[in-house]
Design brief:
The complex is a heterodimer. Chain A has helices at 3-6, 17-23, 25-52, 70-76, 79-110, 118-130, 133-144, 150-157, 174-198, 203-211, 216-244, 247-253, 265-274, 284-315, and strands at residues 55-56, 65-66. Chain A is mainly alpha-helical. Chain B: The complex is composed of two ATP-binding proteins (UgpC), two transmembrane proteins (UgpA and UgpE) and a solute-binding protein (UgpB). Chain B: Part of the ABC transporter complex UgpBAEC involved in sn-glycerol-3-phosphate (G3P) import. Binds G3P.
Chain lengths: 320, 502
């Protein structure tokens, strides 16, 4: 049944927008709460930050000077902004593939109905996801501490290193350490996404494969994977956006240090907007410009992945 | 290096990491013998216009003011509402509240906002119309409590300066058990020199078999690197401002001194201690509360930290035997450390220009400027945020050690000149000044982490950047009509061994 069949007269004189709105006023009324929330908490902040990005404004006094694109020009010449941007990109590239691969492996294993206690394992793997970041930060600071930290005890005891490693204080290691913590915390979510994807594989295919004498590995590679592959684009998109929003973890562990070595974009924005050096004014306009540029980058990534989804769908049977 | 196997307890670590004020757990005792006596109203008080609302940054202030205001409300027949918010929220709540008319009757300003800006913007109003005996009241405060350009403007009184900023965030605090491993016996009468400080850290580390690193710092908090460096340099004889556009600015000649031999020497001392292996491992990922907790657990020998550690350790770690002394100074030097002004501007309270109950708020201000109010504060807060009346600190209930810490700071900390008192146009300079990145704190952290390697070169670059930034801010401020010159920042009559009294 087409939409036209359902509720719009197929023929007849065209009516104005106002008339149509009035005719469906009750329907539109139900949209109002959602629109108000969307406008207040998403649309308005987006528009406001774009406006603020054109100002020289500290954020707390009435002196706002319109400076056009000056903040953007200064940002592009700001080595700390550029470094933070690429650090965010690095973090995404370092974490997302690993997170997706681990999540997939775990999902395939736990999707096996013959595996006993799979629900228990799922819960255990998902536990870090629901644990607050602040708790994770404190626990990880203990675990990774070079002073009596269990991980350092383990690797020094095993003779892997001569002296304790400062995982979160070493400029060379800090981003890798944070990436490891991040993957550990969020792989459970990716696993759940993959498990949902696996539910779309019809039981008949498993049954047919079993009757054909196909091995478990072959089922996974030649039956399951082709079916769930399109989901990878969506899962990758969600994971990438999540990896770009890593502020709580970094702020709670390293605060972007040592000496900017873990300062990703969100920490840069926070530092310029809300945490200026003592006794100086914050730069909300400048930070807003950084936020807008970062938002555009995420939007670009989103568009790329949406295009990838469409392309993948077109390749599916039934889509020509 | 192998460290001992008796780790700090999780409980202790969590306690430090959460950085909760110990006082929060206890009900405050405003007065030593009886309930606080609010006395007769200071004037014929108007009828309440809704509740009396008060906003500050919480922590110990919340421990004191929430019940204090409630008792005041009972005494005066007015409902009171207290809110304590983190600074990040004050930075948004107060400006928004002022704009839409919902700001509380009394509030503290966003942390980085010079009071003169709030006065210029019309956020706050003078106390003079509400406190009948205001000249007499002001006279009860120690000299330097009311500064034109900070809490005074054109002879009118704006801010309540109820706490003293005569605090050093870098006193040398040490565990006596650890110090017993060295040849030194530091005390307020016997401070350590830089060389002794370094030697003590090395001896603690070595003589404990590497189990107790000699020195710890919350190095993930970049401000700790700034404070430690600048205060040790000040003890070496440098004398400059400590925050904002006057960070490292020498008021005696109008030049920045962030590349001076004193600052270079302080940084090189920290690097030498790192290279000695006597700095706690992992300091670059520790915050200050964690470093404090490690010290109290006996896992580190010495820390350069503020007086607020004293009541926390006394309450949380009663078995921890610790001492304190001056910030270390080089052999033969005996400089002071500095604060930008005697009253602590971060704690200063202001009267909303559109307050619903201005007379009641002003009366609470007035009470906090009496010996009784100051003593009530000191009874609750002790040396953490000392009362601005020395007499209140002397007669308040606190441990002998807490009282001694305050006494030491009376000797060690001096107030610098205040630029705004020379010319209020410097408020505009403060607003326009763009701190170079990296600043002094980040530079020292980078040097310690090894990402920067040339101490003198890095500090030369920073010093020049600071000077250029100041010139740029002055030029821009003058373009807007500020009418200031850099020469006005030279206070040739200032003796750096004393508070600047103008």
């Amino acid at each position: 049944m087409s939409t036209a069949d359902h509720d719009i007269p197929a023929a007849g004189p065209r009516t104005g927008l106002g008339t149509r709105l009035w005719a469906h006023r009750v329907d539109y009324l139900f949209l109002v709460p959602g629109l108000v929330i969307f406008g207040a908490f998403i649309l308005w902040p987006m528009l406001a930050s774009q406006y603020y990005s054109l100002l020289d404004w500290s954020g707390f006094d009435s002196r706002r000077i319109f400076v056009g694109l000056r903040n953007y020009r200064e940002l592009l010449a700001d080595e700390f902004f550029v470094a933070a941007f690429w650090r965010s990109v690095w973090f995404t590239l370092a974490t997302v593939p690993l997170q997706m691969l681990l999540g997939l492996v775990l999902a395939v294993i736990l999707n096996n109905r013959l595996l006993k206690l799979s629900a228990v394992f799922r819960t255990l793997i998902f536990l870090p996801v629901v644990t607050p970041v602040a708790v994770i930060a404190i626990v990880m600071a203990l675990m990774l501490s070079p002073f009596n930290g269990p991980i350092n005890d383990l690797i020094t005891g095993a003779g892997l290193v001569q002296r304790a490693v400062d995982f979160l204080g070493s400029p060379q290691l800090v981003m890798w350490s944070l990436a490891g913590i991040y993957v550990w915390k969020w792989t459970g979510v990716t696993m759940i996404y993959w498990l949902a994807a696996l539910q779309t594989v019809p039981d008949e295919l498993y049954e047919a494969a079993r009757l054909d004498g196909v091995t478990g590995r072959q089922v996974t590679m030649y039956v399951v994977m082709p079916i769930i592959a399109p989901f990878a684009v969506v899962i990758g998109l969600i994971s990438a956006i999540s990896a770009l929003n890593v502020f709580p973890l970094i702020q709670a562990t390293t605060q972007g240090g040592p000496f900017f070595a873990s300062e990703v974009m969100e920490v840069f924005i926070f530092r310029t907007a809300f945490a200026p050096p003592s006794g100086t004014f914050p730069q909300l306009g400048y930070a807003s410009a950084a936020g807008v540029l970062f938002g555009l980058a995420i939007m670009g990534l989103t568009i790329l992945q949406v295009l990838a989804v469409r392309r993948t769908r077109r390749k599916e049977p039934g889509h020509g | 290096m192998i460290y001992r196997r008796t780790p700090m307890s999780r409980r202790g670590f969590l306690a430090g990491a959460s950085a909760l004020g110990i006082a929060a757990a206890a009900r405050p005792a405003f007065a030593q013998d009886a309930a606080f006596d609010f006395g007769e109203p200071m004037m014929d008080m108007p009828a309440p216009n809704g509740p009396l609302r008060w906003l500050d940054s919480g922590d110990q202030k919340g421990v004191f003011f929430e019940p204090f205001l409630a008792e005041y409300g009972q005494a005066r027949g007015i409902e009171t509402v207290y809110d304590g918010l983190p600074w990040s929220e004050i930075a948004t709540v107060v400006p928004l509240g002022v704009r839409n008319g919902s700001a509380p009757d009394a509030f503290t300003l966003p942390l980085d906002m010079p009071p003169a800006v709030a006065i210029d913007q019309g956020w706050v109003q003078p106390l003079d119309p509400y406190i009948p005996d205001i000249a007499e009241w002001r006279a009860g405060f120690p000299a330097g409590s009311f500064v034109e350009g900070i809490n005074m403007r054109d002879g009118q009184t704006y801010g309540l300066p109820f706490t003293s900023d005569r605090r050093s965030s870098c006193l040398l605090l040490f565990g006596r058990e650890a110090m017993a491993l060295t040849e030194f016996e530091p005390s307020p009468e016997n401070p350590l020199t830089w060389d002794q400080f370094r030697a003590a850290a090395r001896q603690i580390t070595e003589n404990s078999g590497g189990q107790i690193p000699g020195f710890i710092i919350g190095g993930a908090q970049v401000n700790r690197w700034r404070d430690v460096t600048l205060q040790m340099a000040s003890r070496a004889g440098a004398h400059f401002g400590m925050a904002g556009f006057v960070t490292g600015f020498d008021y005696t000649d109008g030049e920045y001194k962030l590349n001076s031999p004193e600052v270079v020497g302080a940084v090189e001392l920290l690097l030498a201690m790192r290279d000695d292996g006597s700095v706690f491992p992992g300091v670059l990922s520790l915050n200050a509360p964690q470093a404090r907790a490690f010290t109290a657990q006996g896992n580190a020998g010495m820390i350069l930290q503020g007086p607020w550690n004293v009541p926390i350790w006394e309450a949380e770690n009663p078995d921890f035997d610790f001492g304190f002394t001056w910030t270390p100074a080089p052999e033969g030097a005996d400089g002071r450390t500095y604060t930008n002004s005697l009253p602590a501007t971060a704690n200063m309270m202001f009267l909303n220009a559109d307050a619903q109950n201005p007379a009641h708020a002003a009366e609470v201000f007035r009470l906090m400027g009496t010996l009784e109010g100051q003593t009530a504060w000191a009874n609750v807060v002790g040396p953490s945020d000392p009362a601005i009346f020395p007499a209140a600190n002397e007669q308040a209930q606190m441990s002998d050690r807490s009282r001694a810490v305050i006494a030491l700071q009376e000797q060690q900390v001096r107030a610098t000149p205040v630029p705004y008192s020379a010319n209020t146009g410097f408020v505009e300079v403060a607003r326009l000044f763009q701190m170079p990145t990296p600043d002094i704190a980040q530079t020292v952290q980078g040097l310690f982490a090894g990402q920067l390697t040339d101490v003198q070169g890095s500090l030369d670059t920073l010093n020049q950047a600071m000077s250029d930034a100041l010139d740029a801010a002055i030029e821009e401020a003058n373009a807007g009509g500020a009418n200031v010159t850099r020469d006005e920042l030279v206070f040739a009559d200032w003796d750096p061994m004393t508070d600047y009294s103008g």
